[in-house]
Amino acid sequence: MSSIKRHVLDGFPKSMSPSSHAAEADGFVFLTGQFGRDLDDPEASLPDGVEAQTERTLQNMARVLAGLGMTLRNVVSVRVFLTSFKRDYAGLNTVYARFFPEGERPVRTCVGVTDLVRDALVEIDCIAKK
């Protein structure tokens, strides 16, 4: 059995849940769900609207990956959770496409959920490969 390395990154706020920022096994890195909080001011209000929250969520994901020596190009799989799927799906996709350009898009699952931490509109987690 391979070893599992759990990452709690310096300079990042603690996860909202009792979890690590990421876990690594066999060259795969699994990020905990990210949402639109400001990593430099985690108690600040979330931005208004799914587009602004998606932008910050993906920036947060990129920042965690950078802390592990990776970029969004290392991402192979993404899961997206939306609290208002019908209303916010198009706005999410508009922002998402800027972060994952054509030809570099990971596989993705997107589901509607009833609620997210701090009343976020979107949460995204991913699996990346070193």
What does this protein look like?
By secondary structure, the protein is of the alpha+beta class. It has helices at residues 50-67, 85-99; strands at 4-7, 22-25, 28-34, 75-82, 107-112, 122-129. 25% of the residues are buried. The protein has a single domain (4-129), classed as 2-Layer Sandwich (60s Ribosomal Protein L30, Chain: A), CATH 3.30.1330. It is globular and about 40 Å long. The protein has a six-stranded mixed beta sheet. It contains two helices and six strands; from the N terminus they run βββαβαββ. The model has no long low-confidence stretch (mean pLDDT 96). β4 (75-82), α2 (85-99) and β5 form a beta-alpha-beta unit.
Secondary structural class: alpha+beta
The main pleated sheet reads as:
6 strands, mixed
Question: What's the end-to-end separation, in Å?
Answer: 19 Å
CATH class wording: Alpha Beta
Mean pLDDT metric:
96
Q: Indicate the radius of gyration in whole angstroms.
A: 14 Å
Annotated CATH homologous superfamily:
RutC-like
What low-confidence regions span 5 or more consecutive residues with pLDDT below 50? none
| Overall form | globular
The percentage helix is: 25-40%
Number of domains: 1
The CATH topology annotation reads as 60s Ribosomal Protein L30, Chain: A
Strand content bin: 25-35%
Strand line-up across the major sheet: 1-2-3-6-4-5
Order of helices and strands: EEEHEHEE
Provide a count of the helices: 2
Quaternary structure of the protein: single chain
What is the CATH architecture descriptor? 2-Layer Sandwich
| Number of E strands | 6
